[in-house]
Amino acid sequence: MIADVSAEALRMVKHAFSGFRGEMTGITSRTHEDVEEILRERRRWLNIAENDVWSTQKKIRKLEEEDRRLQDLISKTWGDHNRCADEVKRLTTKIIDLDNRIASLYNSMDHIDMRSNDSEEQRQQSAVIERAKNEIAILKSKKLEMERRRDGKTKEKQRLYTEVQQLKAERAKGKQEKEKEESRLYKQRDKLDRLRAAYARMKINLEEYANVAKSFAAVSDQNARKNMNAIDKCIYSIDKYINMIL
User: What is the DSSP string of the chain?
Assistant: First the structure.
């Protein structure tokens, strides 16, 4: 009968609507998953950029610490150098003073007249010369010791000066490296700011897209439900009509 065919056709349509409702439910969940996957990937990029900034900042801090250490070491070494220079000057002055005293003793000895026939006078003059010679020997010994110390301090001063120059060169190299890293940091921060802004915009757009998809699915499901209810009523009427005829 035609009524049977119509009822069957309506059941097929209802089945199709039921499948459509399932698809709409799937669209909502798939859209949510797709949005989360895209945001996860963008967050991964953000994390990489943030780690790059953190790593560069850490390197700059280490370079700054090294610069302060070198600055302190340069100050200390230069202070040691200056103290050595002062000691060299002091020893040089003492050596000059010893030279003058030795020269004075030699001069005194040159003026002693040993031609006297008086044995007592000759003995006294010989004693004066002997004391002068002993004092000269002592002064020369002191002079040699001071010259040794002065030479040692002079070498130490030269070594410290060389060390200061090396430290200054090392510090200058560190400053260049720091400037290089600061330039890198500026670019990395700019990139991070742009990624954050892009992520924020994308998140808003994707959330709007997900909400639209959700609303579309909800409206479609509601319409499908209404159509399925209408079909159920039609099928009920047809079945009732068939039962009355029979």
Answer: -HHHHHHHHHHHHHHHHHHHHHHHHHHHHHHHHHHHHHHHHHHHHHHHHHHHHHHHHHHHHHHHHHHHHHHHHHHHHHHHHHHHHHHHHHHHHHHHHHHHHHHHHHHHHHT-----S-HHHHHHHHHHHHHHHHHHHHHHHHHHHHHHHHHHHHHHHHHHHHHHHHHHHHHHHHHHHHHHHHHHHHHHHHHHHHHHHHHHHHHHHHHHHHHHHHHHHHHHHHHHHHHHHHHHHHHHHHHHHHHHH-
